[in-house]
Design goal:
Layout: H1 14-55
């Protein structure tokens, strides 16, 4: 690690400046490579899922929900003593 005193009257050496710039650029480049690789993996996964879903045969999903929510009074056929209100 490079130790540099900020209170000194000497300017920072060129080798130290270049080393810091090189370290920062290298760190940002590695971060960008990993981020772009993660983006490509997610993009390829999304395309694969889209293609699989696109070519999957359609399933018939016909539900008749109109009878499910009708307002029907309670009809008891066996006991006639229940009064419907």
């Amino acid at each position: 690690m490079i130790f540099y005193q900020f209170n000194s009257n000497q300017p920072m050496p060129l080798k130290t400046k270049l080393g810091l710039i090189f370290g920062i650029v290298t760190g940002l480049a590695i971060l960008a490579i990993f981020a772009f690789t993660f983006f490509l993996i997610a993009l390829v996964g999304g395309v694969i899922l889209f293609v699989i879903n696109f070519f999957r045969p359609k399933q018939d999903r016909v539900f008749d929900i109109s009878n499910q929510y009708e307002n029907k009074p309670y009809k008891n056929t066996s006991n006639k003593d229940i009064i419907d209100i």
